Amino acid sequence: MYEQFFSLKTKPFDLVPNPDFLFLSKSHKKARVYLDYGIKERAGFILVTGEVGSGKTTIVRDLIKGLNGNSTLSRVFNTKVTSEQLMTMINEDFGLDVHNKDKISLLRELNDFLIDQYARKRQPILIIDEAQNLSPELLEEVRMLSNLETDRTKLLQIILVGQPELTKTLGRPELRQLRQRINIRCHLFPLTAEETEEYILHRLEIAGNREAIRFEKEVIDAIYGYSRGIPRLINIICDFLMLSAFAEETKVLTAEVVNEVIGELESENRYWHDESSGNNPSKLEESALIENTEHSARMLKISKERFLQIIKETVTRVDSLTEEFSKLQIFERGRNEILDRCSTAEEALNNHIARTDRQLSRLSAEMEDLFKKMELLRKQIDIIHRVPPSSQKKKKGLLRRIFS
């Protein structure tokens, strides 16, 4: 209702997670880069965590907005469900028929669908929002979905989005296999004081007028102090501040106005004071800082453990390759020895064949000479047979001459 007064095209501090208003703080920009890389490289599991109102949904919507035409998306919002209900929502969002289907049928049809998508060179992506509500059993079933894969790539890209409690749940011993499959992790930290001011001006600029209203320095400090850098709380405060300025017909905000508005909001909604904070905004900031520090320490420990694991795996692989190389050398020596023996045997065989050929040649010549002599003898015997019986004396003389 105040847009016209401040020369704005739309409300700058609406609570709807509109990706057009996405402000890339240091941690938001890092998360966006990680998400783009994970999608491009088909990294399997991606984990995005952040406090309530830190901008998780906005950054996911911006990711969806930037997906290319080869992506097929299934997004689950309601995570307080049973295993079969979860599978039904996933399949239904992928456009599969889920009417009267049991869990086994749902899994089989999802697998067939993913294989078909892979054959068509499409990339199915499953985004599970509010994943901190999933029980360890359901998280394990989500992990099982990542077993749908080919020899080269995952058939399904899974993005888990949730509050910091999700990280604690994933730390349970029974979920260690799932933890090991999370290739990319990113956490959305609250904005710094400087980023808070840039965030406010950024939203005013996107809404149509960066200079719609002037915030005194104390005002920005107060907004940051009460919101603790949480974008959603900044939006709530700034929306009421602009409404208050509109009611007063002013375009300058002072610290007094902020404190008055914050007091009204807190008395009605208790946005900032709760039992855990001790009704002290500074304690909330301290709590957020401690949690961020603990998160960084956990990430560093995980990175160190992963690095040591990679070194150990590399050493094991090198030892295995060395052993295989040694076996290969032994095999090569044996092969050369066999080749040498075969060469010697071949040479001996060739010599034997040559000697045999010579012997056969001599034998053939001798047999040919023998055949000639036998033919001559046969002719002489024929001549003797033709001698008449009356010439016995002549016949005997011929026989003596033949056998002499």
From TrEMBL:
Q: InterPro entries from the xrefs?
A: AAA+_ATPase, AAA_22, ExeA_AAA_ATPase_DNA-bind, P-loop_NTPase, XrtA-assoc_ATPase-like
Domain of life, per UniProt, equals: Bacteria
What's a single GO MF annotation on this record?
ATP hydrolysis activity
Ordered alphabetically, the record's keywords are:
Coiled coil
AAA+ ATPase domain sequence ranges: 42-194
- What Pfam families does the annotation carry? AAA_22
Report the leader peptide range. none
Q: Which residues form a coiled coil?
A: 346-380
Segments spanning the bilayer are none
Protein name as catalogued: Secretion ATPase, PEP-CTERM locus subfamily
What species is given as this protein's source? Candidatus Sulfobium mesophilum
